[in-house]
């Protein structure tokens, strides 16, 4: 953008629209604000009216948070969620980009790759509830009803979407880049690692964001896979579910625990907001 | 085929381990033998962890894991599907338990030593419920009573006395309403809470043979449940209104904070009520379901009972844990924390809040909760909830009859 | 050249095989169980297609389908309409553009289960309190407490979360439209409304297609929010198909029957998605 245009742009910015959007934005903040306010109150300050839910307390108290950290074993469960999320993201990026590269470079002239493509992508439409029980049986049979198994299944279940994204993006990367490398005597592995993988960076971001959100917030899969044994694999949403039946009568404590469960993602979002939104945008435009 | 499967599994597992770069072995590193105790009551997890720690101290060779997930029934099912059930399963008295017993997942405990520590009446109750020639597959540990809890202070304020007949109950409710207060806080959004009213009503209006007779078609749901349905519907008039908007937690908090004078629940709700309002002057009386106080029986059931699974690799240790639980001191620990009633034959003093039900309880004037007999597909509370909304009695009975028949045709 | 093919194959085939084992095999197992009277454990018999017949006579199953489709169609339309409007607003010349976009994306990063818990409180206590103080009959009791309105509560909660993601996709679509297209139409004297239907909408049609298909698919599989908002009640009016399969198949004893249900469910999702793609693709105008 040239300087002159930038100036013109500033003048043309519209306040009415801005204000309208800010007002609508309140709809997004109200539930979160309410959760926060309830979380810093004591039960004695809770009344069943609007003020009880929305007014700021006279005295801020963080004791609900420390209590919630204790009863939901927060550090431990958040740690589990973190391990599962990070490993799933890393594995998805590696595995999906590799498969997609093979598919994208061959699907035009080889039927088998075309088949691979449609086979993997069509899985997008299989409801998880259909696979749930047979999968539970199968994973237990392989002794994979643990964190590793869950990570593994996230690779499998995100494969459809990720393949779609990577293949779409790879189609737009000119093949000439690779060809010169082949002429220099590189083999396909090193071409993938040294040339393609770095080029896929924008799409890695997209896949990472989508996989991370799916894995961090997922309930059903960890619920059926991880419950049991010594309970050391419990993830954050699972701890919330259990908490609900255990301490749900203390609304303030409950909301403190909700806030805690939402916080890691919110913080991560605040830090990497630009990358996350760009990631999603890229997926839509180039995928 | 089988060898192929094994080889395939081995290769795949090995490759997975390599890929993920971590070990797949779940074996215990220490010499301790581990047992897993699954309890369906999440509110009891802390006391069981305490008991587990105490047990570990007394038995240094055993490690105890207490597991009490949210949505316990679904998780337990997933564990059964997986084929690695917990060593000890703690459930309440429902047909879910019976299904597992019939699928031969549990050890037969009929002649075991731990069963001898249980009061005979509960073993009889369990044997009736299982209907497997008197065999039992669990050790009843705690019992519950379902009745009506009330705010003693408010009762005194309004000059009310404890009702003993249905007629008196409606009068009490009307007096409370006239005084501008709410008789009951109902949390029917969670349909299971309907059981708290339904179990005493349906239980009192039927005999012990009723369920067998329904299968034999000499009695019918239509006849026996007509009056209970009418009464349970009537109770909604005495509620805070909008009963399907509030869940168990909401109702418990509401009652504890004095928003209603009475609350239909079992004794399991007492810890939560007192946690919300430690100052509360709380009482409990049997649900007066009948027109004649003489006919009225207290609705009771097994609240928690423990089975040992056949697939357990540590059955001896599991038995040791159950033996540990039956010791007087440990029974007391649990009952005090959970306001439970021991099913174990031991000394016990009812807590003050439950004084109103002691007499019936000790005289054995008890009706077993019908909930224990309904197959899970029957979904009684959900069906009654639907009936309360659409008023379609025929639909309700059709649902009851077809699911009952499906479950009982062999 | 031969080695290149080999490497491509070794990049993709193992993954496809793993995918087959942990996605397609459970799918077949699910189909197999649908032909049995299995409870999920213990012994079972092979009963042919009886479950499928039972399915069509089961009022509960039919209700779940009715609810799920009603919910999915309405939410899909609602979400897409609002998202397009928001995207137009957020893409116009406004102040705090980055911050506003960031704000509007927040709901998408939060877990459905916990958002459900928060909205549950909002619907049960806050909104009725607001309704009462304003004297609005319709709002003075909880939306979730009545079968006629409970589904609206779920639509609101799910839409609140999904609008975020769809808006971002539409914004990225709008950004692909070059400015000069509008300049040309301004010379022709086209108005804003005409501009939208004649230029903007056709140009973002591919994004509309993606959003419609993904929304429909996601909403047909709705689970987390229902779990935390209503658990399927009251009077089973908000039991979605996923919920029914989970509850009756897992907690109840209808493993075989619900497997049959999921087979039908799967076929329907595929059919609907294929239909959508076909119809919507016809309307697309490629840039």
**Helix fraction of chain A by DSSP (H/I, runs of at least 4):** over 70%
- Give the number of domains of chain A: 2
CATH topology of the largest domain in chain B: D-Maltodextrin-Binding Protein, domain 2
Q: Mind describing the biggest β-sheet of chain B?
A: 9 strands, mixed
- Rg measurement of chain A, Å: 24 Å
Poorly predicted segments of chain A = none
Structure description:
- The complex is a heterotrimer of chains A (287), B (410) and C (287).
- Chain A has 287 residues and is mainly α.
- Chain A is built from 14 helices and no strands.
- Chain A folds into two domains: 3-61, no CATH class; 75-249 and 263-286, MetI-like (MetI-like fold), CATH 1.10.3720.10.
- Chain A has helices spanning 3-12, 15-39, 50-54, 63-71, 74-106, 111-122, 128-141, 147-171, 176-183, 188-199, 201-217, 220-226, 236-247, 251-286.
- By secondary structure, chain B is α/β, with parallel strands linked by helices.
- Chain B folds into two domains: 29-144 and 301-355, D-Maltodextrin-Binding Protein, domain 2 (3-Layer(aba) Sandwich); 145-300 and 369-408, Periplasmic binding protein-like II (D-Maltodextrin-Binding Protein, domain 2), CATH 3.40.190.10.
- Chain B has 18 helices and nine strands.
- Chain B is globular and about 65 Å long.
- Chain B starts with a helix and ends with a helix.
- By secondary structure, chain C is mainly α.
- Chain C has helices at 2-33, 50-57, 59-91, 97-109, 112-134, 150-175, 179-187, 192-203, 205-220, 224-229, 241-251, 255-283.
- Chain C is globular.
- The model of chain C has no long low-confidence stretch (mean pLDDT 87).
- Chains in contact: A-B, A-C, B-C.
- Chains A and C meet through helix 2, helix 3, helix 5, helix 6 and helix 7 of A and helix 1, helix 3, helix 4, helix 5 and helix 6 of C.
């Amino acid at each position: 953008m040239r300087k002159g245009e930038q100036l013109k742009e500033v003048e043309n910015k519209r306040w009415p629209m801005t204000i309208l959007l800010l007002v609508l934005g309140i709809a997004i903040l109200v539930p979160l604000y309410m959760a926060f306010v309830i979380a810093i109150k004591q039960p004695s300050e809770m009344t069943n009216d609007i003020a009880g839910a929305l007014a700021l307390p006279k005295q801020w108290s963080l004791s609900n948070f420390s209590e919630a950290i204790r009863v939901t074993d927060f550090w431990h469960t958040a740690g589990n969620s973190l391990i599962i999320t990070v490993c799933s993201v890393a594995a998805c990026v590696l595995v999906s980009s590799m498969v997609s590269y093979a598919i994208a470079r061959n699907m035009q002239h080889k039927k088998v790759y075309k088949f691979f493509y449609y086979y993997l992508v069509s899985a997008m439409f299989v409801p998880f509830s259909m696979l749930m029980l047979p999968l539970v049986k199968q994973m237990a049979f392989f002794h994979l009803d643990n964190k590793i198994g869950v990570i593994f299944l996230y690779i499998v279940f995100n494969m459809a979407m990720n393949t779609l994204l990577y293949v779409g993006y790879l189609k737009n990367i000119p093949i000439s880049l690779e060809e010169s490398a082949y002429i220099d005597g590189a083999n396909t592995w090193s071409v993938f690692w040294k040339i393609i993988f770095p080029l896929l960076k924008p799409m890695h971001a997209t896949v990472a964001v989508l996989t991370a959100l799916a894995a961090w917030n997922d309930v059903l899969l960890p619920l059926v896979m991880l419950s049991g044994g010594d309970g050391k694999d419990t993830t954050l949403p699972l701890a919330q579910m259990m908490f609900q039946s255990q301490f749900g009568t203390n609304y303030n404590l409950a909301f403190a625990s909700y806030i805690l469960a939402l916080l890691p993602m919110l913080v991560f979002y605040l830090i990497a907001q630009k990358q996350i939104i760009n990631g999603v945008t890229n997926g839509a435009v180039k995928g | 085929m089988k060898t192929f499967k094994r080889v395939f599994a081995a290769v795949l597992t090995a490759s997975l381990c390599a890929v993920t770069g971590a070990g797949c072995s779940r074996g215990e590193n220490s010499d301790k033998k581990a047992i897993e105790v699954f309890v369906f009551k999440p509110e009891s997890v802390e006391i069981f962890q305490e008991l587990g720690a105490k047990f570990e101290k007394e038995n240094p060779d055993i490690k105890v894991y207490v597991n009490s997930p949210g949505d316990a029934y679904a998780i337990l099912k997933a564990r059964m599907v997986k084929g690695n059930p917990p060593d000890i399963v703690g459930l309440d008295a429902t047909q879910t338990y019976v299904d597992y017993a019939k699928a031969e997942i549990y050890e037969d405990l009929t002649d075991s030593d731990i069963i001898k520590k249980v009061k005979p009446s509960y073993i009889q109750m369990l044997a009736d419920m299982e209907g497997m020639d008197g065999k039992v597959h669990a050790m009843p540990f705690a019992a519950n009573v379902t009745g009506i809890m009330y705010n003693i202070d408010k009762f005194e304020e309004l000059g009310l006395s404890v009702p003993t007949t249905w007629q008196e109950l409606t009068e009490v409710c009307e007096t409370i309403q006239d005084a501008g207060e709410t008789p009951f806080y109902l949390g029917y959004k969670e349909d299971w809470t309907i059981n708290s009213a339904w179990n005493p009503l349906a239980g009192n209006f039927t005999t012990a043979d009723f369920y067998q007779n329904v299968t034999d078609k000499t009695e019918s749901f239509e006849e026996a449940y007509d009056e209970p349905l009418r009464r349970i519907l009537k109770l909604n008039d005495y509620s805070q209104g909008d009963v399907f908007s509030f869940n168990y937690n909401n109702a418990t908090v509401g009652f504890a904070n004095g928003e209603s004078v009475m609350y239909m629940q079992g004794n399991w709700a007492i810890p939560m009520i007192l946690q919300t309002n430690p100052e509360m002057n709380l009482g409990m009386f049997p649900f007066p379901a009948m027109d004649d106080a003489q006919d009225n029986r207290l609705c009771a059931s097994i609240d928690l009972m423990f089975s040992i699974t056949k697939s357990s690799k540590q059955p001896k240790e599991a038995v040791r844990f159950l033996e540990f639980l039956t010791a007087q001191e440990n029974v007391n620990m649990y009952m005090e924390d959970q306001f439970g009633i021991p099913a174990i034959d031991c000394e016990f003093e009812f807590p003050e809040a439950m004084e109103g039900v002691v007499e019936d309880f000790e005289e054995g004037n008890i009706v077993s909760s019908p909930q224990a007999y309904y197959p899970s597909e029957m979904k009684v509370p959900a069906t009654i909830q639907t009936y309360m909304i659409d008023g379609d009695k025929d639909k309700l009975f059709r649902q009851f009859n077809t699911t009952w028949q499906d479950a009982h045709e062999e | 050249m031969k080695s290149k093919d080999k490497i491509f194959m070794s990049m993709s085939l193992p993954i496809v095989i793993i995918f087959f084992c942990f996605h397609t095999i459970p799918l077949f197992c699910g189909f197999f169980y649908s032909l049995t009277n299995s409870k999920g454990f213990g012994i079972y018999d092979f009963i042919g297609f009886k479950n499928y017949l039972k399915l069509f006579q089961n009022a509960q199953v039919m209700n779940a389908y009715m609810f799920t489709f009603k919910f999915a169609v309405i939410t899909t339309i609602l979400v897409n309409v609002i998202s397009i409007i928001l995207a137009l607003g957020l893409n116009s010349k406004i102040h705090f553009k980055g911050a506003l976009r960031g704000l509007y994306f927040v709901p998408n990063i939060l877990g459905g289960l916990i958002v459900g818990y928060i909205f549950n409180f909002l619907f049960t206590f806050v909104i009725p309190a607001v309704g009462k103080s304003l004297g609005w009959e319709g709002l003075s009791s909880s939306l979730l407490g009545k079968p006629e309105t409970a589904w609206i509560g779920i639509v609101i909660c799910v839409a609140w979360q999904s609008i975020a993601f769809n808006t971002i996709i539409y914004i990225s679509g709008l950004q692909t439209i070059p400015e000069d297209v509008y300049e040309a139409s301004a010379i022709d004297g086209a108005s804003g409304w005409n501009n939208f239907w004649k230029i903007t909408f056709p140009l973002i049609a591919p994004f509309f297609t993606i959003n419609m298909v993904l929304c429909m698919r996601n909403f047909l599989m709705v689970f987390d929010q229902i779990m935390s908002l209503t658990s399927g009640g009251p009077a089973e009016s908000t039991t979605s198909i996923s919920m029914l399969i989970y509850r009756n198949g897992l907690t109840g004893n209808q493993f075989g029957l619900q497997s049959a249900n999921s087979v039908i469910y799967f076929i329907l999702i595929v059919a609907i998605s294929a239909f959508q793609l076909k119809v919507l693709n016809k309307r697309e105008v490629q840039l």
